[in-house]
Amino acid sequence: MAGAAQHAHWSSRWAFIMAAVGSAVGLGNIWKFPYEAGEGGGGAFVLVYLLFVFFIGTPMLVAELSLGRRGQLSPIGSMKKIAQDEKKSHWWSLIGWSGVVGAFIVISFYSVVGGWTLAYMVKAAMGAFSGIDAAVAQSTFVGYISDPVMTLVSHFAFMAITIFIVAKGVQGGLEKAVTVLMPALFVILIILVIYSGFTGDFAKAVDFLFNPDFDKLLFKPNTAEAIAAGAPATHFSLDTVLQALGQSFFSLSLALGSIMTYGSYLTKDVKIGRSALTIAGADSAVALMAGLAIFPIVFAYGLDVAGGGGLVFMSLPIAFGQMPFGIVFGTLFFGLLAVAAITSSISLLEPPVSYVEEKTGWDRRKVAITMGLAAGLLGILSAYSQGDNLLSDIKFKMLGLELDIMGVKDFLTNNIMMPLGGMFTALFVGWFVTRKNMMDELALSDKTFRIWYFLVRFVSPTAIGIIFGKIIYDNFIA
Ligand code: PHE
Predict the structure, then answer these.
(1) How far is it, in rounded angstroms, from Cα 74 to Cα 351?
(2) Is 248 in the pocket of ligand 1 (CB under 6 A)?
């Protein structure tokens, strides 16, 4: 296979951790997590999400990193090679395929939202938020996402930056950028949490995020017609639990080949178990801090917690418009959010690029540009599906939801491909790879290995299976 011989590696353990944290921490934490927690009813969603992160996601990080390191190829190549070594069916390479295709779909809309952050950085710098109230914040956002020119420009600007860095290869720009910028994002988030704490409705935010109300998570309202026909007001549903599961995978960059690809750049001396805990810890901390920065403002200004994908963009600008040095903080915040998004989007473009590079032997630059542009074109559909933009009238009905084009891509990847990909990965490492090979690759202590093995063999597949089973039953059988 072309490219395998000169396959790149991280320059140090620290560089790898920063790149993996860079991949994990992104729009998923600061844009997606708060609005999903808001739509999912708050505390119970957050609690279930954290359980998924530590009991399913973290063991899966370990699994994917080790598969990548063992395979030393793209996710598809690695899965094929390991299945072959283990004398198992070549069909296991479908896990790699689903990751690579999934990553391609996700980056096509991730880049759209990445573009929003770039545009908001510019708006903040120009003082567009000074003195705005909730209504203006809302109309500014809707006006922007409905603008066919601005959204296109920002989407392609974001994609161009991603392509540029991926084209340069692993050690080039990526490592250097993440080691400085990720810590900076952390600091500014802390400042925002403190500011929101003093000026917003902090108590209500804490109550909302940490006081679990399981009824909100597990029971969905019935339709007016159903109630008129004698049904109770609500019914039991695991839809939001599935959403939390998908979000935990999304946030940890799992099941899209990204972590597996980063694992393939690992050298044998890195301790995978400890790295996985660091990545999951940093990722959860950022998500919770984002929630604590955003919800005090959401409550203080009476914004809709279930307002969807515009939540960050409609809440924080109000704060920036009022705080001292708001222009500086606003610009920094959206700038660093853009950086966090870029260090994630790089890892989304990486799996398709590493596969095509491996397959064709083309030079990396050419592959990065081709794949990035193709994803960019697909992304136009997502960009134009928002607000009142050109394609916003196109809606799809899926499992009782009405989704726009971006919503469909998100649903397919977040709620179907990622949980299923994760389940099959767990089954593969837990039941099909020889135990001894797994032990050698991971080099964990005996006790830790046993805990990990139990989680991937039994806990992950059962939990994901139950959630899926229930949803399939509700929608197709009952
Ligand atoms: N984890 C990234 C985020 O939270 C998104 C991502 C998903 C990146 C999957 C790579 C793979 O923003």
Answers:
(1) 6
(2) no
253 lines ligand 1 (CB under 6 A): yes
Does any ligand 1 atom lie closer than 6 A to the CB of residue 284? no
- How many domains does the chain divide into? 1
- Tell me which residue has tokens 């000074």: 130
Q: What is the pLDDT of residues 109-153, one digit of tens each?
A: 999 999 999 999 999 999 999 999 999 999 999 999 999 999 999
Atom 7 (ligand 1) nearest CA: 253
- Strand 401-403 relative to strand 219-221: parallel, antiparallel, unpaired? unpaired
Ligand 1 within 6 A of CB of 418: no
**From ligand 1's centre to the CA of 274, what distance in Å?**
20
pLDDT tens-digit readout, 262-319:
999 898 888 999 999 999 999 999 999 999 999 999 999 888 898 888 999 999 999 8
What CATH number did the domain enclosing 162 receive? 1.20.1740
Range of the domain at 65: 4-477
Cα–Cα distance between 431 and 447 in angstroms, integer?
19
Rounded distance between C-alpha atoms, residue 248 and residue 251, angstroms? 5
